[in-house]
């Protein structure tokens, strides 16, 4: 079952700068669709999970095809399916793509993954999706703000996680720290999927950026993909880690993993 809504945003300036301080609301989906009350909201779930997919101008058509295919393959991998259904409580899932300040597109609205058929339908929706933009910069703060609002209308779940995938640092609009300050992230964990840059300096800078500015909340971690060819493996490993119920007495895992 799906939930949708339409919001219009308002901007104001940070004193002494020309930069909009924050957008309290950002458009989620096309106009004319209203929020619906659904059985999933009453059922509850263990995790509301959002996947945020980078389609900024640094991602070319081949790389975009690799990341979409990687998401589809990861969602349908046997080990990920096992992780989705490792508990009696289901997982709610939503997926969107992002690039510039006002360039976010919902690819899969909230769906309760309570059966393998629901998971397959989600994978099919991503496989059939088309990229909305390819010529906008990397406005990660705005992308996080959009994700926070998406989580505000998620089914009632025990935990909330937003996965921010990207191959570059924020270069337009307010930074992640502003999004965390101004939007409802108190009960949200933000993990990362870092797509390594081609050069060593760029690679290390991106990892440091995610560690210092993007990862948020208890237990937040990042998985590193060695290029878009490695996107499927990284997404599969990240989903397994996020979806598997924690083991009592388990040792803490590394914040950054390959």
Please indicate the percent range of residues in DSSP E strands (runs of 2 or more).
15-25%
Say what oligomer this is. single chain
- How many helix segments? 8
Whole-number count of domains: 1
Give me the side-by-side strand order of the main sheet: 5-4-3-6-7-8-9
CATH architecture: 3-Layer(aba) Sandwich
Structural class, from helix and strand content?
A: alpha/beta
Sketch the major β-sheet: 7 strands, mixed
Report mean pLDDT, rounded to a whole number: 81
Q: Within the CATH hierarchy, at the fold level, what is the topology?
A: Rossmann fold
User: How many angstroms does the end-to-end distance come to?
Assistant: 34 Å
CATH superfamily: von Willebrand factor, type A domain
Name of the CATH class: Alpha Beta
Elements, N to C (H/E): EEHEHHEEHHEHEHEHE
General form? globular
**Approximately how much helix is present in the residues?**
25-40%
Low-pLDDT windows of residues = 1-42, 247-252
Radius of gyration: 17 Å
Overall strand count: 9
